[in-house]
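Supplementary Methods, section 5.1.

A reviewer requested that the exact input to the structure prediction be made available. We therefore reproduce it here, unchanged from the version used in the analyses.
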Amino acid sequence: MHSFHVAEKGDRSMLIEETLAGFLDEVASDAPAPGGGSVSALSGAMGAALGAMVCRLTIGKKGYEAVKDEMAKHIIELDDLKKALMLLVDMDTDAFCKLMNAFKLAKTTDDERANRARAIQEATKEAIKVPMETCRKCLKVAELCVPIAEKGNTNSITDVGCAALMARAGLEGAAMNVRINLGSLKDEAFKAKAQSELAHIEKMMAETSKKVLDTVNKKMQ
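The structure derived from this sequence is encoded token-by-token as follows.
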């Protein structure tokens, strides 16, 4: 296991290069990171991977010739989203570590206290930006699941449904991390912009995931 002494990136190996068992052990350990933010990004990445799988299982199959090019395009998009979300697994833990390090800064003199307060605010912004990006990417994964559910290989219809659910879980988990860090942010303009964007993303996800699951349930009948 890694020793999470609230390390800067570079002091540890990449979480995403762990075995699945190793990553799960790391999450289950008493180290505060990786936590919900990293797990949320991984959830989104798994959704992207499942969506790409269904596209690949559609191309070349009889009766799906007309959607071959569209599925090939979605494969590229989902593979890119998978890679981005895999990076966010580590970026989230790194952001948490930087925030914890900021809280550990000296606070004896007035200058030290001022420096510490600035560092905490900057690290808090980063701890908001990272899960917000996870939210954005998870929404894109879910949006791509809509045409895949409608036109992809019906034999893999439940996989598309699962992909959308993983993307939704990833977004909802990341959104909680955005909100908890917004609570301690003093930059009101930054906070208002983030809150507005998050509300929009969550609304879009609710509509998009419903559309995917409605299609999946209809095709399973």
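The radius of gyration is 20 Å. These observations are discussed further in the main text.
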